[in-house]
Amino acid sequence: MRTGESLPSVGDVLAALATGMWHWDTGARLVTVDAEAARLLGLPAEATTLTEAQTRARLHPVDWNEITGVIPLAVAEGTLAEVRIRIMDERGTILRVVRSRSKPSYDPERQAYQLIGTLQEVTEPTPGTRAARSAVTGDWRRSREAFLLDAGRALAEAASTAEVLRVAGGLSMPGFSPDGLVVFGVQGDRLRIIGQHGHQPSDLGPFSNMPLSTDYPAAQVARTGRAVYLSSPEEYKARYPATWPLAKHFNRSSWAFLPLTVAGRTMGAWLAAFTYPVAFTPDERAVLTTVARMLAQALTRAEAAESERELTEGLQRSMLPSLGPAIPGMEVAARYIPTGGGLQVGGDWYDLIPLPSGRFALAMGDVQGHDVRAAGLMGQLRIALRAYASEGHRPDAVLSRASRFLHGITHDEQLTDLRFATCVYVEADPVTGLLEIARAGHPDPVIRMTDGTVMRRPTAGGLPLGIDPDADYPTTRFTLEPGETLMLCTDGLIETGGHDLESGWRRLRSILEAHEWDDGAALETLADALVQGVHGPSSHHTVGPLTDRREDDIALVLVCRPEDDLGCGTTVPLRPQVRRTLLSVAQDEPDRISEARQHLRELLHDWAETEQVDSAVLLVSEMVTNVLVHTDADALLLAEVLGEAGARRLRVEVTDAGDDLPHRRRPGELASSGRGLMLIELLADAWGVDPRGEGKSIWFELYEPDGASEGGAAADGPDGEASEGAA
After folding, report:
1. Measured distance CA(687)–CA(683) in Å, rounded
2. What's one Pfam family the UniProt record gives for this protein (predicted)?
3. Which CATH architecture does the domain made up of 11-123 adopt?
C-alpha cells in the first residue's frame, strides 16, 4: 500500500485473512453472516441472514451444543466465547474446521443473547505427513472429548462421596492437570471442606470452617455462583490480599475456583490448583466448568444415596425382628436378610412375644412388596399382632383381629395400592412342647425329627391377612417332641434362585437332612447352613450386608426342644426313637387326601421295602376316603414309626367320630366300594378296629422285613379275630 492511500475496509482485511463476520441474535433466532462467513459455512459467498435452524444444520451437533454452553459462561465471566466448529454439508460430510471468536452480551429485558464475532478457517495438515500424525496425537479437541466422556462415566458410577472425591482426584485433564483439588461445601453461613486431594490434611485447617463473608476465592464463588480464575501468584495477591498468606506456602502458580451448581443452587465450590502457570483459555475454562458441573451432580447423587442409606439403616434398626429374652426349655435361632437394591427393606418379619399365661408366641409374616410402604405396613402389623397376643387372645383370634386391622388400614377409598400379608402364629408351651398354630396363607412349618427325618407339618389355615376382615383361622395342635426342631420361614428362603415352592422345599429338606449337628451351637450353625445353601456365605448377624443382592426378603426362625440336658443336635437319645405325624382331613377337604399320602411317603423316606411304602400309602388313602364317604365326621390320621432301622414298625391309625363299626362286604366285580378291609387283610401285617367313647379308630401295622414278628401276617381284629366290615 502506497503512502497516502486510504486504509482498506475491515471487511476487505478480514476477507484477505479468510475470516468472516457474523452476528447472532438469540431473541430473534436469526444469524447474519457476511460473504466470507457464508462461504466458510458452505453457502454461496454472499451476505445473508439465516435462521437458527438453518445455521444449526451446517454445524456438527456436538459443536452446536458446545456453543450454547460456552455463551452463558463467557457472559458470566466477561470473557470471549471461543470454540472450534466442524462445518458439515447436506450429506453430513465435514467440509472444514473453523474457529469462532465472539463477544456475547445479555439483554435481561428481552432475555436474549447478542453475539458479534468472527469465523476463521483452521488449516489441517495434509493426511499422511508428520504434521498430520502430530496433529492426530495432539488434537486437544479429541483428547478433551474423550476425557469428558471418561470423567462423566466414572463420576456417574461413583456411589459415595468418598468415591466421587477419589475419582475427582484421579482426573487427568488433557494438556493441563491440577495437582491439588479441594471440594468445599456450604453449611449454614460457613464454608467447610468436604474432601481434598494433593494436600496434607493438617495444612487445610484454616480453610475448613471459614465464614462465607471471608475475602477468599472459594467463599466468593459460594456466595455469587461465579467462577474465579487466578493465573499467577501476583493476581491472587492483588485480588485477595487478606487470604493470600494462607495460600502462599502451598507454592502453586495458578488457581481455578468453580461453583458447584445443581438445579440453579450453588452447593459449594471446587478448587483446582496448578504448580505451573495456566492462562485459562476459553477452551480450558470450558473443560473445568464441565467437570465442575459433573462433580456437583455426582456429589448430589452421592449425598442423596448416603442419606437414603442412613434412612434405611435407621429404619432397619427400628424395625429389626427381635427374639427378646431366652426361653427356658427351648432354643431359638433366627435370621433376617432384606432384599437387595432399593431401600433394602421389605415386608418380612418375625417376632417372639412373651404371653401372660407363661407361654410364648412366635409370629412370622410377609407383607406384599419390597418397598417403604411394605416396610411401614409390616411395622404396623407387627405392633398390632404383639398387642393382640399380649392381651391373651388365642392364635385364631389374634390372626382374625390382625386381618381386620390390616384390611382397615389398606382398604381406604383414597388408596389404590391394596396390600395383604401372609402370617403364621405359633403359641408354644416350653414345658410340654405343645404348639398351637394358626396360619394365614403362609408356608407350612417344617419339623426335623430326632433321627434327621424332615417333614412339612400340614396345618389348617385361612386367607392371607387383609383380604377378608371376617376370615376364620382354625388352629392346629401338636407336640414338639424332645430333640425335634421346628422351622418357620418366608417364601424368600424357599423360592430364591428360580425355585418354586416344591423344588425349593426339596432343596431345604436336603440341607436339613444332611446338616451335621455339633454340640455347641447346633441351631445357629443350622440357620447359617440354610441361608448359605440359598445365597452363599452369610454373616452371623441378624441382618445381612447391605451390598448383598437378594431376590426376596428372607425370614427364618428355628425352635428346638432339647433332649433334656444334652441340648439340640444330640446324637444320644434318652428314649426310644419315635417318628410321628398327625394330620386331620375335614369333610370339606377331600383334596387333603393326596397331602396325607405325600406326608406318609415323607415319613417313610428311608423305609427298607419300597413295596411296603406303596402298600401303606394305598391303605391310608383307602381308610381316610372311607371316613369321608361313609360318615359325617372328619378323619384324624396318626402315623408312627418306632424302633431302630432294620427292625422298625409302622403303625397308622385313622380316627373318626362315627358310631358305625366297619364290617366285611363281598363286592361284586363291578362294585366301586367294599374292598377296604380286604386290602387291609391282604397288605397289613396286623390291623384292627378299636371302638372309642365317641367314634372309633381303625389301625394297621407294617414291619420292616428283618423285624417282622412271627405270625405277623395274621390280621387280628379287636377281639383276636379277623374284623369284618367294609372300608
Report:
1. 10
2. SpoIIE
3. 2-Layer Sandwich (3.30)
